Amino acid sequence: MKVDDSKNKQNLQELIDTKDFVRHISVDCVIFGFHQDILKVLLLKYHDLDLWSLPGGFVFNDEDVHEAAFRVLYERTHLSDIFLEQFHTFGEKNRTENNVHQILLKNKNIEVPTDHWIFQRFITVGYCSLIDFSLVDTFPDTFNETCEWFEVNKLPKMAFDHERIINCGLQHIRKNIDTQIVASNLLPEKFTMKELQTVYETVLDEKFRRNNFQRKILALNTLERLEKFFDGSANKAPYLYKFVDKK
User: Fold this and answer.
1) Which of 67, 64, 69, 86 has its CA nearest to residue 27?
2) 82, 74 in Cβ contact below 8 A?
3) Which of 144, 233, 234, 240: disulfide with 226, CB 3.0–4.6 Å?
4) CA-closest candidate to residue 56, choices 125, 102, 3
């Protein structure tokens, strides 16, 4: 979808002064990245704070929630044509009590009233994506000084309830892995069954017997078998496959 990134070009003071946000609603994107048999998640570090967060943001009055999610994703990665899926809404009443924004604004000597909208309760809508993180550039935003990829089992100290959101997103990715793999463009157009099995094993964090895995995947009827892949070695040449409909 076409992303309007003009809303992202603000400094911190301009963001605080904005009155065009929907009150109490935000979006958070759990962007999982796969590359070289490793599964990672994209995190952002707050300015002057030893805390990390998910790429997230507020929803403008003139945009749909899914449009806000795509805009946030584009702001952080400059990716616009990827599969992004809503997976859960997080509405615990105390999820934002450790108000990182209050500390951040104090460190920046920006004074705002205690009843300002940014200090109030927020319900966040979670979106997730599975991409090849080697193809992504990251761009710090108004609140954050750096973006980095972290292995999903080696997370730093997280703000708010973002560790729970990551775990929820990971469960969703794993539960819907067949759809996610087809839609995520993690593999080249033509790939071997071994390459596909590696992606499944990395995302699910478990090993499969080759024959059992092949039987399960072929039963989904999402693959088309192509020619054999000859690499000049003495090993038996494997078949190449492609997804029947990657959309």
Assistant:
1) 69
2) no
3) 240
4) 125
Among residues 66, 81, 69, 75, the alpha carbon closest in space to that of 6 is found at 75
pLDDT at 11: 60
- Segment (H or E) for 61: none
36-52 pLDDT, tens digit each: 899 999 998 877 788 89
Burial of 197 (0-12, 13-18, 19+ CB in 10 A): middle
Which residues make beta-bridge pairs with 123? 25
* Strand ranges in 8-99 using DSSP code E only, listed in sequence order: 21-35, 38-46, 52-53, 56-60, 85-90
On the question of pLDDT at 175 being above 50, the answer is: yes
What mean pLDDT is predicted for residues 98-122? Answer: 77
Contact 180, 130 (CB under 8 A): yes
3-state secondary structure of 200: helix
Residue range 53-80, pLDDT digits in tens: 999 989 999 999 999 999 988 877 777 7
Distance of alpha carbon 61 from alpha carbon 65, whole angstroms: 10
CA torsion through residues 187, 2, 4, 168, sign: negative
User: Under a CB-based contact definition with an 8 Å cutoff, are residues 222 and 244 in contact?
Assistant: yes
What is the residue type of 225?
Answer: R
The bridge status of strand 56-60 relative to strand 223-228 is unpaired
pLDDT tens sequence across 142-164: 666 688 899 999 999 998 999 99
